[in-house]
Amino acid sequence: MKPSTCQKNCQNALRVADQLCQGRGVRLTPQRRQVLEILCDHHKPMGAYDILDLLKSELPAAKPPTVYRALEFLLEQGLVHRLESLNAYVSCIHPEHPHASQFLICRDCGEVRELESRSVDRTLDSALKACGFAADSQVIEVTGRCLRCTERDPS
Amino acid sequence: MKPSTCQKNCQNALRVADQLCQGRGVRLTPQRRQVLEILCDHHKPMGAYDILDLLKSELPAAKPPTVYRALEFLLEQGLVHRLESLNAYVSCIHPEHPHASQFLICRDCGEVRELESRSVDRTLDSALKACGFAADSQVIEVTGRCLRCTERDPS
DNA sequence: AATTGTTATGTTATCACATAACATAACAAA
DNA sequence: TTTGTTATGTTATGTGATAACATAACAATT
Ligand SMILES: [Zn+2]
Ligand SMILES: [Zn+2]
Ligand SMILES: [Zn+2]
Ligand SMILES: [Zn+2]
Hints:
The structure is a homodimer. Chain A is an alpha+beta fold. Chain A has two domains: 89 residues, Winged helix-like DNA-binding domain superfamily/Winged helix DNA-binding domain (Arc Repressor Mutant, subunit A); 51 residues, Dna Ligase, domain 1. Chain A is built from six helices and five strands. The radius of gyration of chain A is 17 Å and the shape is globular. β5 of chain A pairs antiparallel with β5 of chain B, so a sheet runs across the interface. The site of one zinc ion has 8 residues of chain A, from α6. The site of one zinc ion has 6 residues of chain A, from loops. Chain A binds a DNA duplex through α4. Chains A, B: Pfam families: FUR.
């Protein structure tokens, strides 16, 4: 993806976030929006302190709680996912329809990809139903090598 | 489960671990075995520093690396799972056939249950295959309320 | 038995991630 | 303009994990 296209996607994602928040009557304040923008601008998962470092260039007074509060909001609104196995955060590619977190994490290139498999979702749901478990959040994270890295170096 | 039965299960799990390690030519040293025993004796997930506190009663010189090294070994051997969303560890109930980590975590009673669903496993595998992703570890963690807690207080 | 390479442990310090607690400010409704 | 609510500022601390280096135990070889 060319940089120009990429930046356009980021801008678009922010507009979508604006609309979603307005529609829900919640406030995407400048701080929250800046954190989301940082996550959108990067394609790889970022730690809270990585975000903090970047945020400081726009908001020198930023401190850990600044970032964690923004992340808490963005997670609640489904605009961002947390990657439990990396202690990192990544912007959601389809925030308009909230969904369970399903990620493929490449250990070579660091790329993360949202899987969004309905069949996995359904199968897991029925397994949960079968044992009477009432889920309120699901985490699926698969670590390995992505197609591109496997093709580049099939070892 | 009665205490006597439980303790028997723990002893049995340790014997199984002994045999597995012997068969694989790896060493379940006293330290490693003690950490595994602590995890087997408790049914709930434990943080590394919780384990450390208990370990100190038998091994006063124990320090964080002592525990983390033992956990690293036990994880490699599939004797223990790490719960990513809790930063905690729990002993595996079926170490004799290594498997992907699938957990149901009750937010009320704290109970964790290994799901071991073959259908979930298969569905995820085929989704991974479809996008050419070569997995080397899978994490599935579902948080919610277990059947018992739902029945006790259906709210 | 002595040598040597390997694996495991001891020890100190530090890094990385996250939140508690309390004060102030901005906002929105009455 | 008062009042309640939500958001932010600030300091300190809690919690989880590892780096780096030294020493000891073990196992294979000579
Ligand atoms: Zn998403
Ligand atoms: Zn890759
Ligand atoms: Zn298991
Ligand atoms: Zn429960």
